[in-house]
Amino acid sequence: MKQKTIEWGTEKISVLFGQVFFPTLLGMLGVSAVTTIDGIFIGHGVGSDGIAAVNICVPLLMVLTGFGLMVGMGSSITASLCLSRGRARMARVNVTQALLFVTAVALPLVGAVMLFPEGTAYWLGSSERLLPMVVDYLVWFAPSMLFTLWTAVAMFALRLDGAPKLAMWCNLLAAFVNVVLDWLFIFPFGWGVRGAAFATSISCLTGTCIAAGYLTFRARHLRLCRLRFGKKAFAFFGRNIGSQCRLGFSALLGEATMATLMFVGNHVFMQYLGDDGVGAFGVSCYYLPFVFMIGNAIAQSAQPIISFNAGIGKTERVHATLGASLTAALMCGTVATAAFVLFPKQLVGLFLNPGDIAARIAIEGFPYIGAGFIFFIANLAVVGYYQSIGKVLPATCFAMLRGFMFLIPSFILLPRALGAVGIWLALPLSEILTAVVIAAVFRIGRRHSMRHSAVS
């Protein structure tokens, strides 16, 4: 069925944002469901050690996904600008080069993980007790890294090409395949964490094949094209990929925030509460991708609208889109916070028996970590706004603040002052401090604009 053309520069902003946001949100929640369903089956089929083992591996996936989002966001911004200026061929080249680049990066990484799984497991922070499960998961999970990168880039291209519903179905179908295969491989086949990893790889491949088929044969504006070869072509490729990575760098930092949260959190929980603490933290880390994907869905839905209208000079539409994205962030963040504060026992109970030590630690901690979700989602929306208008410096600075400058010291200092509660509060404190800085920057920028207008 032919996709309806989306008029980025003329349609009412609220309608346009809703057209893109709802299918994008559903698709991204489908992606998060892949991870969460793994956790539910592993929790009941393997136990808290299985959850802890998988959680050890998740930071690697987060960094890789962040890399894909960086290239995908960057290629979408440059392709949006090309389309707004009538340069359709160059927009196609941008998308094709982005997919080629992530493939070249992923292949050696996949090979390295499969050849050296024990070294990778130790580097990620595995204990001796969890090592066999971590290695088992890594070996079968590694191929999905290539498919994850392809999907991350392709979803941006599908939405920009006017096919947000197809992007949604790519993710939902992958989630459905993962549900079926998780159950099959973990319970009837008894493969444990290996089965969960194999199911993830197959489900990611499913979504990738659909997206690749669309971009190869069906896309209207962004169909993959043949690239030129030669010295000048390689020089252009390098410059173009460099520009894409620069524009999308803060998207990488967004995923790096999640990776840092999980990596440092695993070590801190291990230090204070041992393997049971890592298992408890692992349960929360199965839900955090949902919150992150909500923020990502808001930012990525606003991106083509903002970039296209910025390219043709319609500033008022850019500001209206920012307002719509912040409203969505406030509403979604309130719902996410309420769920963690009001229903921690039910949320943890999906993964573990509430009587387990790890479950009790998680139930106590969920309300604390949930307190920061409104700021978490809103900060992602603001970073996405600055990316979309090509202002790399503020986008990168805000992403660095929430991901490293505030988060790591919070993880180090709060547990010393507050004990285990402080570990759970590290993320909320980091996001709140970042939101305060963003609000201050917005206020200063507004005053500067008012003074400039008065002088003019």
Automatic annotation (TrEMBL):
Q: Where are the transmembrane segments?
A: 20-44, 50-83, 95-117, 137-158, 170-191, 197-217, 247-265, 277-299, 320-343, 366-386, 393-414, 420-442
| Membrane topology per record | Multi-pass membrane protein
Q: Which residues form a coiled coil?
A: none
Where in or outside the cell it occurs: the entry states: Cell membrane
Q: Which terms are listed as keywords in the entry?
A: Antibiotic resistance, Cell membrane, Membrane, Transmembrane, Transmembrane helix, Transport
Q: Chief localization class?
A: membrane
Q: Which InterPro entries match?
A: MATE_fam, MATE_MepA-like, MATE_MepA_subfamily, MdtK-like
UniProt lists the family membership as follows:
Belongs to the multi antimicrobial extrusion (MATE) (TC 2.A.66.1) family. MepA subfamily.
Task: Please state what the protein is called.
Answer: Multidrug export protein MepA
